[in-house]
Every structure is written in structure tokens, then in C-alpha cells.
Amino acid sequence: MPHYIFFNGKILKKNEVFLSVEDRGLLYGDGYFETFRSYHDSFYDLMHHYNRIIDTGKFLKIEFPYTFEEFKKILYDLKYINKLNGHHCYIRVTITRGVDPFGPSIKEKHKPTIIIILKKLPQYVLDRAQKGVHVTIMKEFVKEKNILYNYKTLNYLPSILGFLSRKKYDDVIFIDKKGNLIEGITANLFFYKGKIIFTSNEKDLFLKGVTRKILIKGLKRSNKYFLRYRNFTEKELNEIDGAFLTNSLSGIYPILSIDGFKLKHNEQLISNIKKIYFEELKKGEN
Questions:
Q1: Tally of CB atoms within 10 A around 110
Q2: Are residues 70 and 133 in the same domain?
Q3: Are residue 54 and residue 185 in the same domain, yes or no?
Q4: What mean pLDDT is predicted for residues 255-262?
Q5: Alpha helix positions (H), 61-97
Q6: How far is CA 187 from CA 54, 93, 238, 246, in A?
Q7: What value does the mean pLDDT of the chain take?
Q8: For the ranges 52-61, 142-151, 176-185, which has the lowest average pLDDT?
Q9: I need a surface site. Which of 31, 64, 203, 245 has the fewest CB within 10 A?
Q10: Quick one: pLDDT at residue 228?
Q11: Rounded percentage of the chain residues whose pLDDT exceeds 90
Q12: Residue 25: which CATH number?
């Protein structure tokens, strides 16, 4: 069965889609993207992701031309034509400034390239939410603030470096210039001790994840746990009970070890945190 994607206003077979060699996304990384998932046929956090697409488009001056309702219809159309109704799905939206053969300078008018891919969520994404992950700390690359962080641009080389350096591990934890453990390759980081849940202050983050935002909102409503903002270094790992990562594809998944240092894995706490997250998630758009 052919796979269908959305390309510049039309739903086409994937093998019928061709990207120009003069597309600015290819030539200069001049664009941005968003990834998220469906839970069977529901897009609970879709409004959050749509808003981030709109915000990034305004920042880069490559505006996304579809309303929320138009965007949602495209996703359901892709689910239907790809016969993926009832399945957990992965969605990636890619927007570039479009075709321009005359160098990196920007013309006043441009026609963006828009690609939306929807396919069945890979099994490994579901598995890590259940089994947890082993991670390593990437010390060769220190993340520092710049204007592009918190926008998911097509320049994703820091994360690619993370994937290249993870070796036998499932994920990598990045550090900042102070040695604080900040986040995973594509995930936000939380620690816990007893009933206290720790996460970095938003000003210290490089990725303000949607899942993190929803979970924090749920934790603030809950009376089961206390939320605190604090960073930890590698030397302070003995001060915590455990840790977990969050992203829009896997949701919440526990860290089992960091560079071989085994963390306590409180299954009941992780189960409760997931429940708080899903309760808050389902209050969103569908």
C-alpha cells in the first residue's frame, strides 16, 4: 500500500513528492519543524503544538498558512487515507522558506515548502515508555544559550551530536556551562526524591517541551507531589531517588541509570506521574 503525505497543499503518494535542490531548508537549514503523536484517533495536545508552530513561524518570518481547524482536518485526512484510524501515530510537520536559487539573502516574498508526514508510531517509542532507558552524560559538548534555542529549527546538529555520542546507551543528557544536567537529546529531564519532583527553571532550559508544560500544570493541580525548580550536577546524583524524561512521543519514561550509576526506580511514583499527566493531557484539544 502506498504511503501518503501532505505536500504544499495536496495529499500525494510519498514517491510522487520531490524536493527542489534549491530549497532553502536543504541549502541553509532555513526552516523549522514540529513532532508529536496521536493516541489512537485523538490529538490531545494538538493546540500546544499548533501554537508552537505559529510562534516559530512568526519568529523566523516563515508563517504557517493554515488555521487550527484546517490543520486538524489535514491530520485526520492523512490518518484516513493511510488507513491508520485507531493506531497510535507519529506526526512531523516541516516548514522551509521555500525555493530560492540566489544565495542566503532573503527576498521579500517567498512561498514556503510545507510537508506533513503521519505514520504509525514505532514500537521502540512505545517500549521505552514501559521499560525505561539507560543514559550517558555528554561532556564533550556544552549547551549554551543562543537566540535559536526553544525554536525547533532545521539546524538540529547538537541533537545529532548527542545521537552520535550515545554509544551503548539509549539517550544522552546534555550539560550547561555550570555542569548542570539539563535535558535529553529530544526530552526534558525531571528528578525526584520522596514526593518532591525537581525540574530546571524555564530560563535554564534549551527545549521548553509540550509534555513538560502539561505535566507541570498537572503537578500543580495535584496534592500528591510537590514541584520544585532546581538543577543537579553529576556529583549530586546521590541526593535524588530517581529520574525520568518527557517528550511528546514517548510521554514519560524512567531513567534506569546514568553512566552506569543505577537509580532507584519507583514504579508506583512513575505510574502516578503518568496518571497525572494523562488526566491533564485529556483536558486539551481532541
A1: 16
A2: no
A3: no
A4: 94
A5: 68-81
A6: 21, 18, 22, 5
A7: 91
A8: 142-151
A9: 203
A10: 95
A11: 74
A12: 3.30.470.10
3-state secondary structure of 49: helix
Check pLDDT > 90 for residue 149: no
Cα separation of 4 and 17, whole Å?
Answer: 10
Domain containing 217: what range?
127-281
The pLDDT value recorded for residue 81 is 97
- Parallel, antiparallel or unpaired: strands 251-258 and 261-262: antiparallel
Distance CA 96, CA 225 (A): 42
Indicate if 276 and 203 belong to the same structural domain.
Answer: yes
Average pLDDT for 25-45: 95
d(CA 133, CA 252) in angstroms, rounded, equals 11
Which residue type, as a one-letter code, is found at position 9?
A: G
Run of H or E including 121 = none
Q: For the chain, first and last CA: distance in Å?
A: 28
pLDDT, residue 188, reads: 94
- Sign of the four-CA dihedral 81, 83, 86, 87: negative
How many separate helices (H) and strands (E) can be counted in the chain? 7, 15
Q: How many domains does the chain have?
A: 2
For the whole model, what pTM was predicted? 0.92
